[in-house]
Hints:
alpha+beta, CATH 3.30.1330.60, 4-stranded mixed β-sheet, 18% strand
Amino acid sequence: MVWAVAILLGAAPAMAQAPAFNCVGAEQIEDDVFSVPFARGSARLGDAARSPIDAIVEALGTDPARVACVLGHAGQEGGATTSIRLAAERARAVTDALATRGVPRDRLRSEARSAQFSPRVRAAVPPSRTVTVVVLPAR
């Protein structure tokens, strides 16, 4: 009985698994960066998101070793907590759309990025209402 289990386990094909990765420094990468727009105050993907989502799926489909950072940007409207929550919901919406299109979730990392909430930064131009997707180079 034990030998049968050992044979079955040994005969199982090795499952390819995406390597662990993080998104530190992803915003400095200049190639394969995509911007997915959202309407003000919304985390729903609109028609304008279709083309960037298609391009992201294509970039990830060319090499299964590539992974992507899905970065939702928090602005300053509505306060820090509301803005970060909306950024996370937008990043999750893009991640869900990519997964629905066949991209394995273990190849995607979804994060909300926050601008600093200080008077000095408030005077600057607020970040656009987008999610940036950075397809990282294969390792």
